[in-house]
Amino acid sequence: xxxxxxxxxxxxxxxxxxxxxxxxxxxxxxxxxxxxxxxxxxxxxxxxxxxxxxxxxxxxxxxxxxxxxxxxxxxxxxxxxxxxxxxxxxxxxxxxxxxxxxxxxxxxxxxxxxxxxxxxxxxxxxxxxxxxxxxxxxxxxxxxxxxxxxxxxxxxxxxxxxxxxxxxxxxxxxxxxxxxxxxxxxxxxxxxxxxxxxxxxxxxxxxxxxxxxxxxxxxxxxxxxxxxxxxxxxxxxxxxxxxxxxxxxxxxxxxxxxxxxxxxxxxxxxxxxxxxxxxxxxxxxxxxxxxxxxxxxxxxxxxxxxxxxxxxxxx
Amino acid sequence: xxxxxxxxxxxxxxxxxxxxxxxxxxxxxxxxxxxxxxxxxxxxxxxxxxxxxxxxxxxxxxxxxxxxxxxxxxxxxxxxxxxxxxxxxxxxxxxxxxxxxxxxxxxxxxxxxxxxxxxxxxxxxxxxxxxxxxxxxxxxxxxxxxxxxxxxxxxxxxxxxxxxxxxxxxxxxxxxxxxxxxxxxxxxxxxxxxxxxxxxxxxxxxxxxxxxxxxxxxxxxxxxxxxxxxxxxxxxxxxxxxxxxxxxxxxxx
Amino acid sequence: xxxxxxxxxxxxxxxxxxxxxxxxxxxxxxxxxxxxxxxxxxxxxxxxxxxxxxxxxxxxxxxxxxxxxxxxxxxxxxxxxxxxxxxxxxxxxxxxxxxxxxxxxxxxxxxxxxxxxxxxxxxxxxxxxxxxxxxxxxxxxxxxxxxxxxxxxxxxxxxxxxxxxxxxxxxxxxxxxxxxxxxxxxxxxxxxxxxxxxxxxxxxxxxxxxxxxxxxxxxxxxxxxxxxxxxxxxxxxxxxxxxxxxxxxxxxxxxxxxxxxxxxxxxxxxxxxxxxxxxxxxxxxxxx
Lengths: 315, 253, 288
What we know:
The structure holds three protein chains of three kinds. By secondary structure, chain B is α/β, with parallel strands linked by helices.
């Protein structure tokens, strides 16, 4: 029942993703969708950390940046293939994720939020100031196209598919984790650390794992960002981005596998809808975040769950 | 067999436990009583690894385990319930019990992520076991409800099921009858007694409810101000003047 | 020597922000990520008041404090209190939303250009102390902030309302039983924190420009100062602020200027790891 329904939903989503751009061949549209794909990966990362394990991290943009720059610098300076860039991004962000994760060992809630916030800020500062390596505030432009051997991913459509294939794999992987003993261990830690310990769950181990997984996901998204655009620059990795990721997660529904997908889709599309507001765009954005916190803290999936429960009782 | 050898636990100037010697062995229920503040909960925390004893040792079958973490001790077969039922509110009843099996399952990160055959088989077995446990404690019809929607008595039962899920051989119950009426208490205690016998578990029952302790424990130890002041079968303890004094004295203070 | 003075001056600002953080954290149990934005608001309100009333320090100073104070109280009463979730992430997100809103509202209302409070606003002329020339902006910042801190300490420790506020911070349920209205006091705490932020916005101007983005960095530094002194402790916030100001200014002279903001982050991490309760805070034990 639930399993088959989920499989059906997933299949429908795959078909939708595969077919939509072919029907609607519009560059701008593809660009928004590709960005959505990147955010699905980023928000799924935060979902592992916050949704499953209950760790508040406001520094996801930091790992995003590390992945983006790692791959970008490697390819720009050595002409390495995409796969290597991706692997370096994953490795670097994973290692730093581990280090930052160590701070979660001793810190709760708001303190962790502040440290991760600081981390994100520091990464951006370093990217801006380490001119020789990162190109400073300008960033690095004109990175040669990447791909698999002679087959380069160049067209927006090709990137769209690449991003969504990777996003799809990540979502599948995360879903398996969610329903496994690992996922249960994470959620137990979110609910009650002392009781979780009594279930044989080592908080340090699983929290670090959550951090590494979430950092690696962000690193992957970073590498994809860089090569999608052919450039990397510090502006894209600021506090605003981290906040957007958080907002998408909460709006979509924290702790649910579909939450990130819903959140990323709604916010990205919504942001584009807000574009005509021009200068007021961010203002409305801030206002909506507050509205959401007040009226819909459980997000869409939370609402869905509530409705489903009511339906279940009614039947 | 758990043994406390000269265990003392100091928090700054407070001597929560003072040179306590205690043995917990054999299938069945042993009681631990004492007035408020006598150190009962501290003792549980020490045995289950939340505190490391300031002095003395805790031994499991002769091996020292003092200072090991709770999550390591669970793997050695020692588990507990809490004074205020600490179930996982955001998870369903069924999922709560599944978490309990965590130390028994072997799938690591990659096995779980890739859903290997071995993992799937393990999960299936775990699900069956979880349902069996829920049937045992009478919560199977509430399996898919949110943990937070259970009644108080049911929370206690769920905690018990969860503790049993790890296949423990030593179970410490921290005031399981607190907040329950007589009927609920009897139901819970008979369940504990049955399970202790069937699964060969040594249960340490820390309780304030005298009826429960007297009716279900083989032997009883008494703590007062961190020290063990008496030990014996319920009949002896009931009539022991030191025990009566420590409780009466408390009330008059 | 100049560095020490600079450090103390900026430290006073950090202290004011830190106190605001601690006060809010203690009473409402919220980490107010928009505190820096309140300061920014203070700066702009001050500029507007100067435009309306001229360079009158009393009116502008008090007016700024009142305006931002009331606004902060409004935020608590209308916005933060309405967030039904007890989840930290959601409440933090609400404050972040407010911060974004304020930043953009400020840039739209007052423009995106960086502005300064005119030098002439601070009465008197430069004075000479220990061989240094100190400009009015700097010594007034020190004088006013210390005065405000002293006033606050007097209020919290010597008046009935202040005592009630501290009780609410300690145990809201006990406070209620004693006839105190926790809601009112939480609103009051926010109001006070807002007033502090407001006056800091005005006083920080000798060192920085008034600019819609100025809140972000100051937020982090104020928080670091609060943590350094012990989150929740008002005296701790004061000490933490001055210490951070000194370390940052003196340390900042030794490293490339772009990296100056990293100092506060490093201090934050160090404190949280070595002594998370800060200099004056209390150790929190997890109850089992």
